[in-house]
Amino acid sequence: MHIHILGICGTFMGGLAALAREAGHRVTGCDAGVYPPMSDQLRALGIDLIEGYDPDQLKLKPDIWVVGNVVSRGNALMEALLEAGVPYTSGPQWLAEHVLQGRHVMAVAGTHGKTTTTSMLAWVVEQAGLQPGFLVGGVPQNFGVSARLGRGAPFVIEADEYDTAFFDKRSKFVHYRPRTAILNNLEFDHADIFEDLASIEKQFHHLVRTVPASGRLVVNGREESLQRVLARGCWSETVAFGVPAGWSAVGEPHDFEVHKAGQRVAHVSWDLLGEHNLLNALAAIAAAEHVGVAPDVAARALASFGNVKRRLELRGEAAGVKVYDDFAHHPTAIRTTVDGLRRKVGTARILAVFEPRSNTMKLGTMKSQLPWSLEQADLAFCHSGGLGWDAAEALAPMGARVTVDDSIDALVQRVVGAARAGDHVLCMSNGSFGGVHDKLLQALRQRTAG
């Protein structure tokens, strides 16, 4: 089968492309923007990429067109497809029909931590010898790829609540039909498609409805929003984590005992930081148990977990300044990321460099939470390019600790001017951020040379 993917460089669609290629299909694709790490992975697989959505692509005549949710009405190629009457489908639908059928699907849902927890769970199940398939919205460093078919029954998938396609406004995860589902947390996000938190809770309950009675829901017991989801109806075994009655931890996030209903069952010692990663680990251990992985086996696997690219990833050091890259973009994720780095570096200065780039942040829905999210940073630098609201006004409660620029080059110069040896510069964005990491490192080296 020849499939042509519209929006192929998104993390989900790029992973789908990798799976289709591994399954023996001919895969091509197009996108408006192409940047690493997904573009590198696709080219390494021999997948031809086309820049843009020129209707001339109709000449490829694939067997099926797979349409990503970045494509909307008015897209030139999509309009041509509709006029031509050719067969098309969504990415989640294609995945459900051609990859997930017959597998024990293990889905990881939540506002935060999906990519990391999915990667943890895939690694745990892999180390237990179950040879899982997986699709992750990032590149787990233990595997080096974002997706693979696997030979065993389990298939671990990052289960996104964002909508499926312009012609299917259901959340992606309703297509996956999991037997094991992690509900990691639930806050308001995706303000471009959801009116309020209640509308997201409704979609999460649609996911709960698809889990069979023999399935397992692994639920963050600290989240009132998830309790409301379950109160709508639940037909499967439910286990909680993060609370003493369920799966809990005793110790520090980098070294803790795992307790199940108050009884010690394992010990985790690893390199990851932050309370959020401790909770992610508990969820992965509880979910892996459902496919027969003992907690102590899971804990040993986590000791060798290498995290995901762009999760507090050290990109380099220059002039005694360390520069990190992180995917954080929601205020809660920014706060937990800064907290994780703070726990690591102690009293050393943290310079937070960020851009409100997600659709939700561009709308300004959560702008008032930004000062709270950056409380533990010593200095903050905001890239405000493309925003329809006043970032300086929103960040005013931070006083002189914050600087706002609409140019990345200007932002880089400000950061370099403020940075000194021993500092930690934390760059946070859900995009490429204009290559800010390399620009910072280069400018710091030039400062030293000068």
What does this structure look like?
By secondary structure, the chain is of the alpha/beta class. The protein has 3 domains: 2-91, Rossmann fold (3-Layer(aba) Sandwich), CATH 3.40.50.720; 102-302, UDP-N-acetylmuramoyl-L-alanine:D-glutamate ligase; 313-449, Mur ligase, C-terminal domain (Protein-Tyrosine Phosphatase, Chain A), CATH 3.90.190. Helices cover 33% and strands 24% of the residues. The strands form 5 sheets. Strands 8-7-9-6-12-13-14 form a 7-stranded mixed beta sheet, sandwiched between helices. A hairpin with a 2-residue loop joins strand 10 (163-165) and strand 11. It is globular. The termini are far apart.
How many strands, which pairing sense, and closed or not: the largest β-sheet? 7 strands, mixed
> What is the terminal separation in angstroms?
57 Å
Which geometry do the CA atoms define? globular
Radius of gyration: 22 Å
Number of helices: 15
Give the rounded overall mean pLDDT.
93
Uncertain runs with pLDDT below 50, 5 residues or more?
Answer: none
Number of domains: 3
Just give the CATH class of the largest domain: Alpha Beta
Structural class: alpha/beta
What is the architecture of the largest domain at the second tier of CATH? 3-Layer(aba) Sandwich
Main β-sheet, spatial strand arrangement = 8-7-9-6-12-13-14
DSSP summary, beta strand count? 23
- Could you say what the CATH topology of the largest domain is called? UDP-N-acetylmuramoyl-L-alanine:D-glutamate ligase
Approximate strand percentage:
15-25%
